[in-house]
Amino acid sequence: MSRTLKLAALVGVITSLPITLSVAAAENLKVVASFSIIADFARNVGGDRVDIIALVGPNGDAHVYEPKPADAAAVGSADVVLVNGLQFEGFLQRLVEASATKAPIVELTKGGEVLRNTEEEHHHDHDNAAKGEEGHAAEAEEGHEEPHHHHGESDPHAWQSVHNAEVYVKNIANAFCAADAAGCDTYRANAESYGEQIEALEEEIKAAVAEIPEGKRTIITSHDAFGYFEHEYGIKFLAPEGISTESEASAADVAALIKQIRQDKASAIFVENVTNPRLIEQIASETGLKVGGELYSDALSGENGPAATYIEMMRHNITTIKGAILAS
Amino acid sequence: MSTNWASATAIALLLSLSTSAAHAEEVTAWRLFISDHADPKVTVIDAVNGGKLDTFQIKGPASLHRSESGRTVFAVQGSAGVVTGIASGISFEDHGEHGDIDVEAPKLADVEIAGEKPSHFVEHDGDFAVFFDGEGVARIISEKAVLEGKSDFREVKTDAPQHGVAVAYGSHVLLSEPHREKPDELPVGIRVADKAGMQVGGIHACPDLHGEASSGNILAFACAIGLLVVTQGDGTPAIRHLPYADSLSDGKTTTLIGGRGLQYLLGNYGADKVVLIDPTLESDAFRLISLPTRRVHFAVDPVRAKFAYVFTEDGQLHQLDVVKGEIANSLKLTDPYSMDGHWSDPRPRVAVAGDRIVVTDPLQGVLHLVDATSFEKTGDIAVEGKPFNIVSVGGSGQTHEGE
Ligand SMILES: [Zn+2]
């Protein structure tokens, strides 16, 4: 069904409404963030003027998250709802509908650089794919070229580019300013100082990548969460699962990846905090690669973990990647 | 491909806004499958125009179940000792950006599973498990086999006849454990069996086991001591006991249904209360909601995730807001149906078909139609006999000309 299209329309309508909420000075802005990384950005921008609830918590997988009635209640009473967009939150439309919220639903990837998923159609049911192709053939005869049936999905993991993270932060500051004009100067100042921190982070990442020999920059993770990291920083990521963890990798996908690993001479393999490590462990043992640690892809760690904030997460990831490759 | 039945009967609704608008149209089709309290038949009604599509003769009065996909409806005929598969005729194919709908005539699927006293019917991931109380045996069949007309089931045995339940859970089967001293009483726990039928781990205690439901990636059984909550573990199902909260009055859940769109479970709790459960929580998982009178039946709304519906013996349908945890609206639909008397006496049942809530009124021989948005009665459909159990199947999708 046209869930994705409806979602896009819904978000479009809501975000284009003039925001009429006004918040009493004494009361904090009630913010719902769809997942932990956005919650961290919001904390940095909002400081002590905002109360934040993250729907998908530390180490949670937003791709397959099932919203609860309590989440709908939180969204229903929120002043601002911050989401990633690009269909990262598959649960968003039903949650927003169930909540009957009047709060703006702010898509933080708006205005960022969005990558299309260029990956082959290897996750689809072959009967469906075949039928889809027939459909195309028929339409082509009628003079239609507009692609549908799964092609060119946007990659939602935009936060893996620090440059995009700056866009998230700007969008959050704008949303907070619109909902709480009195705090706007604070939000902008916070966003600016946090922006400087993550710009410095980006330099760190680039410097770390520069220390990795160019021939050793191909690595394996469990799902295609690092396309932006690859695009920005030049580490090549291969994964058995696609840009969503929703569909499991088929045996053929895994076999193809193993073949590719052998051809590309991948230097290291990593488990992710949001996915089951079993498949990666299996690929590691079949290819003789040693698991080089855990990368934080779609969620932060818990408070006491190594990736409790976005900055710690990015630093942990590149340090882990570099360490494993140089040790290989 | 099938002929385009839906548009041929002129229920095509909207032209799609996509670029292929000239070639694809949006079609809405909903069907009601209704069993009779006394007669061995299933009546199929077009919920969009109210017309009767077909009547299938079966072997005994049936309780009905629909598959997740909506492609199959099952008539479980306890007294006749058989389960009959019916192809609903409506199927969807997901193309990501849109879904295609295919509409054909409903028909008997040519699949029957026979055995003594079939009772609980559970689907998990496209596998159906029917429990035959009289034998203590579960028979498991895939939706694919049913639609191909193959009575291709496998059998899993428990130690004794019991009013039991089984769930085909990936490569494992969850089976109720009979009460050994008193075989007439409800099962006492859940046993996990692997592909070869070997028990994995110990028995998970669940005294007075009755009631099972799924919501999203969670499955639960109701017991006298709370719930058993099942999730996909590392290789084997992970089973956790969620005790009833101390704050609840004395009682237990014996019927469970699972939220769609929002993850929750809804159970009865005593005769005139229901309990909303967030099975992912360790504490504060239960919210008790009082009803004006005793509960007759309940159903979740698969479209408007925020609502479930409860029918009570005073003839009222209640709209339950599962987010707020309270009754939002009530609507008088039928004469009173007392819960005194036998549990299986003819009483109303509730189903949701798109934008309509449908309530059977067996003693009047009608279906009451309620608009799900306004929560007002919009009409009724007469059905011969005593319309009792009801399931609905349908939705909207595109059809493409030339396919
Ligand atoms: Zn992801």
Write the layout of secondary structure elements.
The complex is a heterodimer of chains A (about 325) and B (about 400).
Chain A: H1 3-16, E1 29-35, H2 36-46, E2 50-56, H3 69-76, E3 80-83, H4 92-99, E4 105-107, H5 126-141, H6 162-179, H7 184-210, E5 218-220, H8 227-233, E6 236-238, H9 251-264, E7 268-272, H10 278-287, E8 291-295, H11 310-327
Parallel strand pairs in A: 1-2, 1-3, 3-4, 5-6, 5-7, 7-8
Chain B: H1 5-8, E1 12-15, E2 24-36, E3 41-46, E4 52-57, E5 63-66, E6 72-77, E7 82-87, E8 90-94, E9 99-103, E10 107-114, E11 118-124, E12 127-132, E13 137-142, H2 143-147, E14 154-157, E15 166-169, E16 172-177, E17 189-193, E18 199-205, E19 212-215, E20 218-223, E21 226-232, E22 237-243, E23 256-258, E24 265-268, E25 273-277, E26 286-290, E27 295-300, E28 307-312, E29 316-321, E30 326-332, E31 350-353, E32 356-361, E33 366-371, E34 377-382, E35 387-400
Antiparallel strand pairs in B: 1-2, 2-3, 2-35, 3-4, 5-6, 6-7, 7-10, 8-9, 11-12, 12-13, 13-14, 15-16, 16-17, 17-18, 19-20, 20-21, 21-22, 23-24, 24-25, 25-26, 27-28, 28-29, 29-30, 31-32, 32-33, 33-34
Bound molecules: zinc ion.
